[in-house]
Specification:
The protein is of the alpha/beta class. It has 7 helices and 7 strands.
């Protein structure tokens, strides 16, 4: 696809990104807006969402900000109602919101921390899919992209709960893809390695060699601009050099 066509390839489409206030979510939102999509920016805190919205606006894009906690069912249900009432459609859902939780042996992890990790990383994806997929089913088209991690493929000592939540997210994504194929909805999962963000720095690693939020955003852009006859179900992203 030529650059000029790519720039307009998502015109009129509506994309919703969770965790859009910073890091990977903000990069995905600005990238999709640059491709012509109207982006809905979701997160728990208004201030960082407004910052992302300002970046989108300064680049000539369109956005709307909706505060939402993906771990809260009623909050997500209200989000779904708002999207249906205000936009009447949803073409792209990017489930990006996530949390790492404290690092350390699993036997030292509190039940509360376990619940917070799973409620955001896995239960939240269930909630958003439950509330928003019906819009896509009625339209008989759409993309659902879940941002997972290579920790959902490999062992992560001292991060077992996070790893387990991402293994679960991968399994959810594979199964959901089969459920929704009949409705012409493509479900994909992206598993990046460590990504350098201000919100989640990785001490002891060379930031210049680490993956950047733009690398994940590039993968999302590729998924939502591919031809209609196929879909990429999974993308693994690794840095060229080990940081």
């Amino acid at each position: 696809m030529s650059q000029s066509r790519l720039q307009k390839s998502l015109g009129e489409q509506v994309a919703l990104i969770t965790g859009a206030g910073r890091g990977i979510g903000a990069a995905i939102a600005t990238t999709l807006a640059a491709l012509g999509a109207r982006v809905i920016l979701c997160g728990r805190q208004r201030a960082p969402l407004d910052q992302t919205a300002a970046t989108v606006r300064n680049n000539g894009g369109q956005s709307a900000v909706i505060e939402c906690d993906v771990a809260d069912l009623r909050s997500v249900e209200l989000l779904g109602e708002h999207v249906e009432h205000s936009f009447g459609r949803l073409d792209i859902l990017v489930n990006n919101a996530g949390t790492m939780g404290p690092q350390g042996p699993l036997y030292q992890l509190s039940p509360g921390d376990w619940d917070r990790i799973f409620n955001t990383n896995l239960r939240g994806v269930y909630y958003t899919t439950r509330s928003l997929a019906p819009l896509m089913i009625r339209a008989r088209k759409g993309h659902i992209i879940n941002i997972s991690s290579l920790a959902g493929k490999n062992a992560l000592p001292n991060g077992a709960a996070y790893s387990a939540s991402k293994w679960g997210l991968n399994g959810l994504s594979y199964s959901l893809a089969e459920e929704l194929r009949a409705h012409n909805i493509r479900v994909s999962v992206i598993c990046p390695g460590s990504v350098h963000t201000e919100f989640s720095p990785h001490e002891g690693k060379n930031a210049q060699k680490m993956l950047q939020p733009s690398d994940v955003a590039h993968a999302v852009a590729m998924l939502v601009t591919q031809g209609p006859q196929s879909f990429v179900s999974e993308i693994l992203i690794r840095p060229t050099q080990k940081p």
